[in-house]
């Protein structure tokens, strides 16, 4: 098997990460254009036809399905590269196979999204698994640039604070899916929504967001009082900035009647928030150095 250097493998992972982010956005476009049942069968598109009649909604839904093929290809290269990389690392191989597991799950779960007529639970799980896969590829990217030894927290006294921030960040993403599930953008007409007032769910989500922001501000304050924490402070500021911007978009969309464009921007913001959170959390650890060749 032809070997590749660590730098080449890292670039392969960057491509896979880009594709995993892009598929979230194409999936959002399917929902926000009302094209969720443009292909109302699985694994074919409709009535036994693999390729649909190219109507507006069918074309958008089918295009998203086609793009998932590029995602699968990118992840296949990530797995193959994990075996070709020299030196080969078992931790990278296992993490790469985790991406494969995610893709298989998403493909199979897509059946239930369609056959349930876009039930909010199935749609939410589809999105949340994408977030797990982004975490997975983020860990791969960080580990592929470091040695195989165990990571150590840079500032041990704030380790549990970081873990609390990560937990609240995950809660922000999860509660956001409930808001979407109760909102007007279901992906198609007549789709079942969460049987709870949108206003109530949105308030719960906003409380979690405010708790997340408070935890970030408290972390910034703590780090300002700890010597030799300047680098960690710099990694925190982008996360704080994205969180504030995302909150502003969220409130704006809520008070303007939840227009589709702002919902799309909010999904972009949620994905960016999650990616930056993963990067920031992982940056709070020191890892053995393995130079990229």
The helix content, as a percent range, equals: over 70%
Could you state the oligomeric state of the chains shown?
Answer: single chain
Mean pLDDT: 90
Strand share of the residues? under 5%
User: Total number of helical segments?
Assistant: 8
Largest sheet, strands/sense/barrel? 2 strands, antiparallel
**What is the string of SSEs from the N terminus onward?**
HHHHEHHHHE
- Total number of beta strands: 2
Q: Briefly, what is this?
A:
It is built from eight helices and two strands. It is an all-alpha fold.
Please name the defining characteristics of this protein.
mainly alpha, 71% helix, 293 residues, two-stranded antiparallel sheet, flat
Describe this structure in words.
The chain is mainly α. Helix content is about 70%, strand content about 0%. It is built from 8 helices and 2 strands. A two-stranded antiparallel sheet has the order 1-2. The longest helix has 29 residues, at about 55-85. It starts with 5 loop residues before the first helix and ends in a 7-residue tail after the last strand. The mean pLDDT is about 90.
